[in-house]
């Protein structure tokens, strides 16, 4: 093998080092160029993305601005609606007549009426023992006979005296005496007859009679019971002609809107039937403690109406001319009631209202609307004041029908 000298190796090494330096500079330049290109590309893509984002945002904003929500609106106008007052009260007889003993009383021998029975005026309800009073009446009849006999004898004596006056056998003074005796005897007959009539009247009062036709509400007497007169416990309570009423207490501000003759609907508690009645009396005074007054509503007799029972009543206090809206149109925020109306340029406006009567037909608006506004029927919860919408008008009758169907 041929061996190289150290000088030759050193020459080759120097030649390789000289070739390596240009290559290093070339790779350095290439790296710098690549870095510049990468930075430029990154900046380009960043600007392009921002432009696209801005364009997308502008497009979205333009799209949102051009697409408005469609809402159904009505112009309610003004309609007459009945104003009502609700209350509760107690059923009672319109004329509750207590019936007791008018005479001196005694032992009851017969009771001829029952609770819940209809009676006529003058009908006997209770018979009281009259054995003592009957004997007293017989005695008075006998005294009348005695008095009549005395009167007849006095008249005969007077007639004979008159026939003897002309002959001089009887003086004028004697004749006057006989006339006085006859007049006294006739008077005693009248007194005896009056005493008998009094006794018979007292006997008649031992029959307790109905003062008027009506329905027996209560009975508190039995045969064999000792009863007394002078305003004791009533033996019966009778509703005259069966007429009933509802007695309800109302606040004084409610009474001012009512008048005699106003219609009312009464529903007994636990029942489903409603009875028509009318106010027949309003309390002339107000209780200073409760600030309430009594209203009395006349009702016809019906077995379902029981005095003492509890009932609710709805009184029609009058008619008012107000806008009427479906219940879906009226919203609440916990403090006030409000509706959404469509203002100029179809922009949503929030309007605070005062609610009146709420019925199956809708909600009457006492204040806040004049009836000419475009009111949003529903979807109010998805709207905000200032939103621009496309209103679709519907008639008030169709909106009410749709609301009731829901």
Automatic annotation (TrEMBL):
<feature type="domain" description="CzcB-like barrel-sandwich hybrid">
    <location>
        <begin position="105"/>
        <end position="229"/>
    </location>
</feature>
<keyword id="KW-0812">Transmembrane</keyword>
<protein>
    <submittedName>
        <fullName>RND family efflux transporter MFP subunit</fullName>
    </submittedName>
</protein>
<dbReference type="InterPro" id="IPR058792">
    <property type="entry name" value="Beta-barrel_RND_2"/>
</dbReference>
<dbReference type="GO" id="GO:0015562">
    <property type="term" value="F:efflux transmembrane transporter activity"/>
</dbReference>
<dbReference type="Pfam" id="PF25973">
    <property type="entry name" value="BSH_CzcB"/>
</dbReference>
<comment type="similarity">
    <text>Belongs to the membrane fusion protein (MFP) (TC 8.A.1) family.</text>
</comment>
<feature type="transmembrane region" description="Helical">
    <location>
        <begin position="27"/>
        <end position="46"/>
    </location>
</feature>
<dbReference type="InterPro" id="IPR058647">
    <property type="entry name" value="BSH_CzcB-like"/>
</dbReference>
<dbReference type="Pfam" id="PF25954">
    <property type="entry name" value="Beta-barrel_RND_2"/>
</dbReference>
<dbReference type="InterPro" id="IPR006143">
    <property type="entry name" value="RND_pump_MFP"/>
</dbReference>
<dbReference type="GO" id="GO:1990281">
    <property type="term" value="C:efflux pump complex"/>
</dbReference>
<keyword id="KW-0472">Membrane</keyword>
<dbReference type="Pfam" id="PF25967">
    <property type="entry name" value="RND-MFP_C"/>
</dbReference>
<feature type="domain" description="CusB-like beta-barrel">
    <location>
        <begin position="246"/>
        <end position="317"/>
    </location>
</feature>
<keyword id="KW-1133">Transmembrane helix</keyword>
<feature type="domain" description="Multidrug resistance protein MdtA-like C-terminal permuted SH3">
    <location>
        <begin position="324"/>
        <end position="378"/>
    </location>
</feature>
<dbReference type="InterPro" id="IPR058627">
    <property type="entry name" value="MdtA-like_C"/>
</dbReference>
């Amino acid at each position: 093998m041929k061996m190289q000298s150290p000088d030759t190796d050193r020459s080759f090494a120097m030649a390789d080092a000289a070739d390596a330096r240009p290559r290093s500079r070339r790779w350095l330049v290439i790296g710098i160029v690549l870095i510049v290109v990468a930075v430029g590309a990154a900046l380009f893509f960043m600007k392009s993305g921002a432009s696209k984002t801005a364009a997308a945002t502008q497009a979205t904003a333009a799209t949102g601005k051009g697409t408005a929500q469609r809402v159904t609106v009505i112009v309610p106008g003004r309609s007459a609606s009945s104003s009502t007052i609700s209350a509760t009260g107690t059923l009672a007889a319109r004329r509750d007549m207590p019936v007791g003993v008018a005479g001196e009383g005694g032992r009851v021998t017969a009771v001829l009426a029952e609770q819940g029975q209809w009676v006529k005026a003058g009908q006997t309800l209770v018979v009281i023992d009259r054995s003592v009073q009957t004997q007293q009446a017989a005695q008075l009849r006998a005294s009348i006979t005695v008095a009549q006999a005395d009167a007849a004898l006095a008249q005969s004596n007077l007639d004979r005296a008159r026939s003897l006056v002309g002959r001089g056998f009887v003086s004028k003074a004697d004749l006057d005496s006989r006339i006085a005796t006859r007049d006294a005897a006739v008077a005693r007959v009248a007194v005896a007859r009056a005493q008998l009539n009094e006794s018979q009247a007292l006997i008649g009062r031992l029959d307790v009679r109905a003062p008027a036709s009506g329905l027996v509400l209560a009975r508190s007497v039995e045969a064999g019971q000792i009863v007394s007169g002078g305003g004791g416990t009533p033996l019966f309570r009778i509703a005259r002609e069966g007429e009933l009423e509802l007695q309800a207490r109302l606040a004084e501000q409610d009474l001012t809107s009512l008048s005699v003759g106003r219609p009312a609907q009464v529903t007994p508690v636990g029942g489903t039937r409603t009875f028509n009645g009318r106010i027949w009396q309003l309390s002339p005074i107000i209780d200073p403690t409760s600030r309430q007054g009594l209203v009395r509503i006349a009702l016809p007799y019906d077995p379902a109406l029981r005095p003492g029972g509890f009932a609710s009543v709805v009184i029609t206090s009058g008619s008012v001319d107000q806008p009427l809206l479906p219940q879906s149109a009226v919203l609440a925020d916990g403090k006030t009631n409000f509706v959404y109306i469509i203002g100029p340029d179809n922009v949503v406006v929030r309007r605070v209202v005062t609610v009146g009567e709420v019925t199956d037909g809708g909600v009457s608006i006492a204040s806040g609307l004049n009836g000419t506004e475009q009111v949003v029927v529903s979807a109010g919860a998805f709207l905000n004041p200032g939103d621009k919408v496309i209103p679709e008008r519907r008639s008030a009758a169709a909106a009410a029908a749709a609301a009731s169907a829901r």
